[in-house]
Amino acid sequence: MLILGIDPGTATTGWGVLNAQGTNGKTKFAIRQFGCILTDKEREMQYRLLTLKEGITKLIVDYKPEIMSVEQIFFGVNSRTAIAVGQAIGAIYLAAAEKHLPIVGYTGLTMKLMVGGHGRADKQQVQDGVLKLLKLKELPIPKSQAGKNIFRFRDDAYDAIALAMCHVLKSQEVK
Fold first, then answer.
1. Set 62, 156, 159, 173: catalytic member
2. Identified catalytic residue from 71, 122, 128, 138
3. How far apart are CA 14 and CA 24, in angstroms?
């Protein structure tokens, strides 16, 4: 199964394309590619959302995933941030709908539980869980990011990959 994981945001949206193949109850994960869609903070919101939608559409066309796994918004203390992320999620959902790509959503808590080992896992624990499931010491630098400051975007990409993994792991849990 090829899954497109998305960690939504209006400034930076992390993405990861993950291949999951299972035999005898064991799943092997392989990362196809990952990165971030960046929007210009100086632009008006409608143009930032358009950039995001176009970026997601390109990922869907280029990689042809079977499903998209998106982090669901959690309304915490900062409602302004929640509204902005909700707008980003709307652009992401629109891109998926236009390409007839099914979407599943998971809360950050669920993703952390499935990949990081517990619902309050910190970023490092999630990243360690991703690497363990991929059987890697670190994520390779994507060709599209060569020479750029990949560390600035790595957390968003890790979270996107973790969301894709979460879908597979939750699907296995149901069976």
1. 156
2. 71
3. 31
| 155 in active site | no
* Residue whose pair of structure tokens reads 């499931």 in the numeric block: 133
The answer to whether 159 is a known catalytic residue is no
Q: What is the pTM of this model?
A: 0.91
- Under a CB-based contact definition with an 8 Å cutoff, are residues 146 and 26 in contact? no
Max intra-chain CA distance, the chain: 51
The 3-class secondary structure across 102-126, one letter per residue, is CEEEECHHHHHHHHHCCCCCCHHHH
- Reported as half-sphere exposure (CB side, CA atoms, 13 A), residue 170 has a value of 18
Residue 71 appears among annotated catalytic residues: yes
Supply 24's token pair. Answer: 């005898």
pLDDT values of the chain reduced to their tens digit, one per residue, 175 residues: 999 999 999 999 999 999 999 866 689 999 999 999 999 999 999 999 999 999 999 999 999 999 999 999 876 657 778 888 999 999 999 999 999 999 999 999 999 999 999 988 998 999 999 999 999 998 776 655 555 554 456 789 999 999 999 999 998 876 5
Q: Output Rg (C-alpha) for the chain, integer angstroms.
A: 15
